[in-house]
Amino acid sequence: MADMLTIGSQAANTYKQALDVTSHNVANVSTEGYSRQRAEISSNTPSLIGASFNGGGSTVDSILRIQSDYIQTQLNSSNSAVERYDQQLSLATQVEGVIASNDEGVQEFMQRFFDGLQNVANNPTSQTSRQMLLDEAGNLETHIGNLASVLDDTEEQINSQISGLMTEINDRLDTIQQINEEVERALNTGTQPPNDLLDQRDQAILELSGYIDIKTFPQEDGGLDIFTSPGNLPLLADNHKTYIMADLSPYQDDRRMEIYMSIGGQKQMISDRISGGQLGAVLDVRENLLDQAQNELGLTLNGFVAAINWQHYQGYDLEGDAGGDFFQSLSATAMSAKGNIEDGSGITVTFNPDTTALTGLNGTPPYTAATQPDTYGEKEAYLQQALSEIGQMQARDYEIRANGTGYEFFDYKTGAQITPDAVNGDVYKVDGLEFDFSGQTNNDGDKFLVKPHQEMLEQFTTILQNPNDVAARGQSPVDTGVAGLDDETPAPAAYGDNVNMANMASFASQKILLSDENGEATLNILGGYSSMASNVGMYVRGTEIQLTAQQNVYNQIMNQRESLSGVSLDEEAANLIRFQQAYEASAQIISTSQSIFQTLLSVVRG
């Protein structure tokens, strides 16, 4: 039976604990991730005395942590999205400023070059106009070179960020693993949950979610398993860590960093299975903005170089010689996968129009008197074939897999298989480009990576240096046969002719890029650049919209958490007064009990 003294003592202890909990809340009002706690007070079991029950006082059953697992999960997910789009916007804005600027940007320098072509067309024998054209070509080359250098720096910046994020992620996993162990020990040695440890773990998980999107799964021993979302890769399972690491691409000479994890004892690349958080952001910017913009700009440059060169082949310079290369033609390299037998050096990737359908063609540009086609018609047909294949170019990278008897092509980004347009022995035509494997052995299992459009950014060079070599003249208009000029032997027009230069200048508006299913080109050179710049702008604007939306969601969820779990100083101040009064009243019970006891002793001794 609980007497008055016992009840008072227990009550004093109860409200002392309540005061301790309230004080702890006040002390942690500014602690990040802290969840307010509450002393759960209940009545002790009453005692039966005669026909009635006498109360047994009160006790603190537990110290309750006020929180919601659902809200915490939503907060982790929202935090991952906010950190992703915030980091994504920062990088995307940087790329936009570099690659899509209209002020002294690629489009401006291309327009100047086309203006230079038109000036030569207007003054075909002017040395000044010809030199100005070459100067503008050099200016364009310099600008493209500077742009390629800045983009390389951006790639290195992303590599550095990936490496740094690996450290942050693995450090958080270490922290969570350690807290898991402490939680398990606490639960095994006591009956009360270790509230502050649980808060610390939730905060560490929230920080981890800012770097990578994750899912958590509570375990019976009090631990938490952590997996990537949506890749379902175990980062922490049964409290065993699986570190993720940054290392170079599986392709030789590819400078980019990728994400790896040990799965089943094998080191596997998992970059495509990572999303959310800052890590997901840098990977997304690299793949869907930087790579795509480089490929689209590189495709525009490849189309530009091929069109200018092939039209230049049609004309004749001041000396009456056929035009040569104006710019360096594409010559892309194949990067070999680590572990290959062949290193890829025997693979050539060029723009070399298919002549199998051009009956009787026997010329190969750049032309000389000995190598030009027999007729002007054949020469024109070769040009039209070149323009047709320019339209077939696609803004993508190629993964090539040897199967022992042939080669299979895949879009490196999507993994979709690509059917070659033509195969002639070891020579494959894919998207208007020629892949020649005749210089190497086909070893089953070898893989190669080719980035022809990004390489054009690196190798863009003006070849023509002498103003006299600008091939402004067109074909001689003299018709000696019955089929117009088509059956005439290729020959230069008279000195001062401008037909070929006017044709070159027309590429500023002539559609030659990205042919549709009917073979009709949909974009001109300047339009190709504008399309790329527009895509970059849409990516940035879309990221801005997503960031604003996700910040609003995050703020709403955080407000919900603060409303439920946050410490209110007004509420805690009221609790302090209430519990202090209860504690003082409990002390009064003890004092009264002692006074009654002394009175009884006095009566007995009386």
From TrEMBL:
It holds the Pfam family Flg_bbr_C. It comes from the Bacteria. Its main location: other. Residues 564-602 form the Flagellar basal-body/hook protein C-terminal domain. InterPro entries: Flag_bb_rod_N, Flg_bb/hook_C_dom, FlgK, FlgK_helical. It is found in: Bacterial flagellum; Secreted. Keywords: Bacterial flagellum, Cell projection, Cilium, Flagellum, Secreted. Residues 93-327 form the Flagellar hook-associated protein FlgK helical domain. Coiled coil: none annotated. One of its GO terms (biological process) is bacterial-type flagellum assembly. Signal peptide: none annotated. Residues 7-34 form the Flagellar basal body rod protein N-terminal domain. One of its GO terms (cellular component) is bacterial-type flagellum hook. GO terms for molecular function: structural molecule activity. NCBIfam families: flgK_ends (TIGR02492). Belongs to the flagella basal body rod proteins family. This is Flagellar hook-associated protein 1. It comes from Thiomicrorhabdus xiamenensis.
